[in-house]
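In response to the reviewer comment on reproducibility (Comment 2.3), we provide here a single inverse folding case reported in full, input and output, so that an independent group could reproduce the run without further information from us. The structure tokens appear first.
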């Protein structure tokens, strides 16, 4: 358990009792703090009460006693009444990442963000460091709550995936290697505008101490950010691009990584079987740059890239059955994320749908020549059907089990070479599943059942 003596005898409200909220509550209580909990969901409040935590009676209670902070779980809107009340009464609104930094003052931190690719890049950096013998832990938005991580000493490295929700509250921090892969519209309902979303991402940049900042510059938004960061004397800026040459950084071309660092040979991504597509080459370039900044040899990094097993729910090959590949890309919760998978395969039977993000499937028109048929599910079904009209053959299938069965049957009947059934929903999962992980797991279970049937 992480230790932090400064919270002893202080009082905190933990707002949100999911994985990160539970870890924060346990951490604070173990370190002698008084903990109150609130969650808008009845089931979560009941779970907190069963665990022995006192519940906040109501939002107005914030004015009735002294709170040293409100610990906000990811995803809660800053416009929520409790957050507004906290700020009105000048109570700090913080998150679990802040406590992690304070509890591990000697550790080296790597922070990874971006609209897409951050989970793969976080896992890839961690894998390469581990394979090279470094003491490393991974957490944050990728699944392991920050305050569930073990204590990290001076030789420890912590690789954190950081969402815009977490970065929104992060103003000062000790992150020495920062990675911002890309910026495209996402979570606008949470942040209120694209400008506010970009501002949250910019909080990854260190304002005082030295930092290596690795930046993908293939979008207008990141091109503008590059100009801003280049003026900061404390930052070493490393650029990544698949569209233009870079002065200092890595150029991605023909699925090879070309570093501007003198004496380094290009890295061929072809042997890296789980890093398919240009977007994964960008993830690999970011991981390469981060690990170089941490002192690893280029040869060790290349070995790590080749031995990486991939990330669950991100273009994950579940099985190949009668020549047909079944790909789980459930983590693609918006159109831009889905575009990465659609660009990586040539003959696609595409399962899409769920809770649509702003913009729907806009931007995916260029990939429809790769799609044989789209199988639409969930809340987005009707809207997606209207979008598909005249662009691609489609059917309404309502649920994942029906879509998968129809997709497999059609693909086998067509008998096309190099075909795959691709779950890349371009949607959140919350209409039919509690998370994208559960959606991906259900897809895998259905594929395994299909495998047994055809054994």
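Designed residues, in position order:
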């Amino acid at each position: 358990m992480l230790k932090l003596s400064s919270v002893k005898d202080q009082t905190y409200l933990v707002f949100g009792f999911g994985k990160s909220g539970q870890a924060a509550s346990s951490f604070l209580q173990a370190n002698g703090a008084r903990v109150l909990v609130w969650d808008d969901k009845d089931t979560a409040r009941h779970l907190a009460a069963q665990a022995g935590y006192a519940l906040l009676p109501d939002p107005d209670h914030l004015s009735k006693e002294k709170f040293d902070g409100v610990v906000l779980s990811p995803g809660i809107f800053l416009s929520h009444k409790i957050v507004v009340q906290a700020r009105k009464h000048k109570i700090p609104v913080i998150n679990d990442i802040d406590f992690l930094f304070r509890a591990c003052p000697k550790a080296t931190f790597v922070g990874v963000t971006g609209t897409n690719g951050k989970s793969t890049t976080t896992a890839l950096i961690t894998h390469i460091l581990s394979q090279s013998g470094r003491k490393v832990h991974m957490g944050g938005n990728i699944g392991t709550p920050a305050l569930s991580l073990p204590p990290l000493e001076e030789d420890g490295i912590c690789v954190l995936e950081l969402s815009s929700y977490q970065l929104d509250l992060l103003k000062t921090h000790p992150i020495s290697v920062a990675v911002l892969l890309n910026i495209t519209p996402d979570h606008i309902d949470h942040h209120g505008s694209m400008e506010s979303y970009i501002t949250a991402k910019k909080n990854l940049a260190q304002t005082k101490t030295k930092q290596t900042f690795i930046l993908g510059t293939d979008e207008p938004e990141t091109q503008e950010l590059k100009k801003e960061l280049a003026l900061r004397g404390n930052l070493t800026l490393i650029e990544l691009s698949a569209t233009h040459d870079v002065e200092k950084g890595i150029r991605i071309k023909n699925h090879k990584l070309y570093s501007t660092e003198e004496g380094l040979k290009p890295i061929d991504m072809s042997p890296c079987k789980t890093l398919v597509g240009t977007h994964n080459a960008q993830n690999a370039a970011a991981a390469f740059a981060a690990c170089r900044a941490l002192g690893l040899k280029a040869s060790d990094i290349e070995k790590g890239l080749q031995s990486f097993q991939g990330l669950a729910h991100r273009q994950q090959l579940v099985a190949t059955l009668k020549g047909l590949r079944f790909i789980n890309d459930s983590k693609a919760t918006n159109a831009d994320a889905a575009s990465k998978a659609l660009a990586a395969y040539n003959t696609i039977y595409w399962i899409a749908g769920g809770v649509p993000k702003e913009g729907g499937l806009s931007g995916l028109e260029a990939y429809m020549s790769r799609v044989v048929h789209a199988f639409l599910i969930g809340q987005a079904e009707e809207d997606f059907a209207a979008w598909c009209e005249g662009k691609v053959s489609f059917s309404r299938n309502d649920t994942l089990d029906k879509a998968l069965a129809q997709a497999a049957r059609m693909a086998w009947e067509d008998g096309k070479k190099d075909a795959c059934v691709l779950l890349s929903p371009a949607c959140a999962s919350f209409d039919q599943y509690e998370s994208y992980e559960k959606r991906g797991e259900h897809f895998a279970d259905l594929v395994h059942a299909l495998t047994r049937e055809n054994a």
